[in-house]
User: What shape does this take?
Amino acid sequence: MVCESWKAKLDPYLDGEVPENEMRALDAHVRSCASCSADALARVQMKRSIQAAGKRFTPSAGFRSRIQKSIATKPQRSFRLGWTLAATAAVILMVGTLTSTYLAMRSRTDLANRDHALSEIADLHVDTLASATPVDVVSTDRHTVKPWFQGKIPFAFNLPELQNSQFSLVGGRMTYLDQAPGAHLIYDVRKHHISVFIFQDKSLSPKLAESLNANSQSPKQLPFNMESWSQDGLRYFVIGDASAADIDSLAKLFKAAS
Assistant: This one.
């Protein structure tokens, strides 16, 4: 098969583990080949299912409490002060160790929540580009695209003016993150597609919002550049295979428009 050599590279491509020159070649091929595009979409969906299954048993906030209760046994009466002090020191040391372990696990859990959310945003970006109808409202006019969302999502947002910039608006569609409805805009810049996702902060789960606010940098394993920030009660994501400078420029336009 003509595409077998391309498909053999899809997994490292989706994981961002191929050299930059091969990444560009694969980007171009996936966009032009329906078979490889469908295969890439299927692999992305499988990765999402595996990630969700792997986080099904993430330790809960009650983990620390249960561990502390299990070790909080009453010290036996001793007639020697030295043994009492030693036992007390051992308990303090153990509690301190468990507390440090719990805090480290919580930090890893927050990071996992953040990475899962950003990976899901990347999946939404890939799914849309692989779709036969990537946008529901097709227009380069922001005054046409913005009103289309009225009544479809529970918030309003502003779109930037693109005059004197290299960006062009393609259109938009509704989307969901963490079961929260949002807007998905698509922009083009020098033959690269960039997705802009907008959600209400209060519609996202508190744990997800907290993890995103703590660290919104793009995970290194994602094969895209991404920026995320919160502004005026809205959470923005800008993601695409364009350069980091282009992602940053479009993000700045949105920040100024808001």
Summary: Strands lie at 137-138, 168-177, 180-189, 192-200, 225-231, 234-240. The radius of gyration is 24 Å. Confidence is low (pLDDT under 50) at residues 98-111.
